[in-house]
Prior knowledge:
mainly beta
Amino acid sequence: SDIEGLCLLRYLRCTGAFWMSGARLDGALYLEGGDIAGTLLLRCWGGKAGGQDDAVATEVSGKISLAGCRIGGQFDGSGCTVGGDLFAQGLQMEQVAFFNTVGARKDGASAVFRFNVKGDLSFSLARIVGQLEMNGAKLEGELRIEDSEISGSVQFKVVHWDVGLRNETLRFVIMKLFSLSATRMSGQLEMGG
């Protein structure tokens, strides 16, 4: 689905999953103060390996704000492109958060959809009961995970994909500041290949 302009869903109450997979939003998405009982899905849509479905990337040209939002299930933004900041200050996560690079089928061939944020990514004051993955992601701004609590591991690893006749290696990239100041992690921090 294509949405033009601002998508304002502040204080949304959702008793199940909230899916925006494959959406193209020409503007910003605000889910501030929302309460989503199930999974928040912003990942690329379709593109089953070996299947007929073509993948469609989720694209938000502006900012995504999840400030003060509670998500009872997973948060999967794998393969999503965010044109502005992804602001998740005070986010409360009950499960795993995925922001990985994913492989899929596009126009009958293998394709790679990279999680890419052109602005800053902030998880300050967040609580994640599970792991946080950003394998192969590209962050063009700052990454701040400050004064937060993560119960599982945090992964910023290299991703290898076979794309047609070539093999792609996508490293986790941060273009500016990376801060884990005053963050408590129960699991391990994995960076590298």
